[in-house]
UniProtKB/TrEMBL annotation:
Record organism: Variovorax boronicumulans
UniProt protein name: histidine kinase
Membrane spanning stretches: 6-28, 35-55, 61-86, 93-115, 121-142, 154-175
Signal peptide positions on this chain: none
Listed CDD domains: HisKA
Keywords tagged on the record: Kinase, Membrane, Phosphoprotein, Transferase, Transmembrane, Transmembrane helix
Reactions the enzyme catalyzes: ATP + protein L-histidine = ADP + protein N-phospho-L-histidine
Catalytic class of the enzyme: transferase
Domain Histidine kinase: from-to ranges: 238-453
GO cellular component: plasma membrane
SMART domains: HATPase_c, HisKA
This enzyme's EC code(s): 2.7.13.3
Amino acid sequence: MNLNLGTAAFFTALAEFVLAAGMLALWAKGRARYLLVWGVGFLVFGIGALLLILRDRIPDFFSILLGNFLTTLSSVLFYVGICLFFDRRRAWLPWMAGVLAVEVALLACFSYVTYDTSARVYVYGAAQSVIALMTLQALCTMGRGRGGNSNPEVVVVALLALLVHGARLVGTPFFPVPQDFLASGNFQTLLAFGLKLTHIGYALAFGNMHAAALHADLRAALAHIEAKAHQKVEILGYIGHDLRAPLATIGGYASLLLADAHDTQRKHLLTIQRSVKYQLHLIDELLEYAKAELQPLTVHPVTTDLPRLLDDISDYAVALCAQRNNRFRYRPSERMPREIGLDGKRMQQVLLNLLSNAAKFTRDGVVTLSVTARPEGRACVLSFAVSDTGIGIDMSRNIDIFGAFQQMHPANGSTGLGLFIAQRIVSAMGGTLSVASVAGQGATFSFALSVPVDASDADWPVVAQRETAPGEPSPAPAMPRDAMPEDRALDELASLALEGRVTDIEHWIERHADEAAYAPFLALLVDLLERLDLRGIHALVNRPAKS
C-alpha cells in the first residue's frame, strides 16, 4: 500500500466515523448536548475526509471547497461542545464563523481563479490554526465547571492540534525551510496521520470529561441524599423530644395519684405508668429506626416472665376494645412456661399492633388473643393468634397487606405501618406472620415462635383465661337543653367520643369554655373525660334533655 494523501484520508474517515458512533452512543444514553455536538464534529470531519478521497471522481466544489469546509467546521463544533460542557458563553463563535467564510472564499479563489494547491493548503492550515488558538484561549479561561479545576488533557490535545496545523503551514513553499527536509517523505501525508491521532486524543479527552461530569453529578446526588437523611434524623429527634415531655408529665401525675389511690385506682394508674414507659421506649427507638433505614430489626432475647407479659398486654387490650364497645377474650393454654428467652418489648409491640387493628375495625364484637404453648425438647413452641369479628379483609384483592403504608380500610390516625412493623419483628424473631380472613366475618392474624425454656412442662404454672365485657356507660344526669351547645356542636362531640379522639374532645371543650351558660355541662364533660369515660360522654350527649 502506497503511503499517500488518499490512503491517509481513507483511514482518517474510517476512524472519524468510529469516534462519531461512540460519541452518539454516549449521547443516546445521557442526552447531554455536548456529546451530540462532539459526535457531529467527528462525523463531519469523516465526511470531509471521504470527499478528499474522491477528489478525482467528483467536482472540485465537493472535494476541495466542501471537504475542507467540513473538516474546519469540525474544529468549530469541538469548541462549541467544550463551551456547552462548561456552560460558558461561546464568545469566539462569531469570529470562527468569519474564519470559515474567509477560508471558503480563498479556497474558491485558489481553485477557480488561480489554481494553486500550495496556497489552498496554506489557507486550510491557517484557518485551523486560528480556530485552535481561539479554543486554547477559551480553555485557559474556563474552570472544570463540575469539579473546579482545569482540564489538562483537552488543553494538551488542543495544543497538539495547533502544532500539527502549524507544521502544515511550515510545510508549504511560503516558508524558507530546507527543501531536502520536505523531500524526505510525503510531509502532508504524515501530517494527515498526525491529525488523525490528534482527533483520537480529542475523543479520549472528551470521554474523560464526560466521565468526570458523571462522577461529579453522582457525588452531588449522594451528598443531597445524605443531607436529606440527616434532616430526617434531626426531625425524628425533634418529634421524640416533643412527645417525651407530655408523656413524662403524665407519668409524673400518675405517680402523685398513686399515693392516695385505692386498689382499683392503683391498678389503673399502674397500667398508665406501664403504657408511658412503653411509649417512651418506642420514642427512644425513633432515631434507631431512622439510622437503620428499614434494615432488619434487631431483637435482644432476655429472660422474660411470659404470663406477666401477657397479662400486661391484656390490660392494654381491654382499654383498646372498650373504645368501640368490644368484648375482649384472653385464651391461653392451661399451662405455660413462666420464664422464657424472648424480647418482651418486641413481642408487646407486635401483639399491641395486632390488637389495636382488631379493635379499630370491630364494633360491638369480640376480640380474642389466643396463646398456646407446646414443649419441644429444651424449647417451647408458642403460637399466637389475634382474631376479631369485625369487617374482615377481602383477600381476593391480592394486596400485600404487610407492605409499608398499606391501608386496607382508611381509619382516623392510621398510617398503614402497624402490620408492616409487626411482620418485620416476627421475621426477625424467626417466625412468619400470616392472615386468614373473609370480608364481613372478621380476621385472624397468627404466628409461631420457638423459644428456649429452662423448666420442664411439668413445672409450668396454670394460667387462667380471661374475658372482659365493655362497661356500661356512666350514668349522666339529663341537662337542660338551654345549658347545652347547639345540635351541630353536640353531634361533633358525639362523633369524637365514638371514635375515641381524646385530644380533639379537649379542643372542643376549649372552644366552648368561655360560654358561661354551658358551664355545668362542660364541668360534667371534663369529669367524664378525666376518667376516660368516652362512652359516658357519648351517652351524655345523646340523653334526652330536660325541658
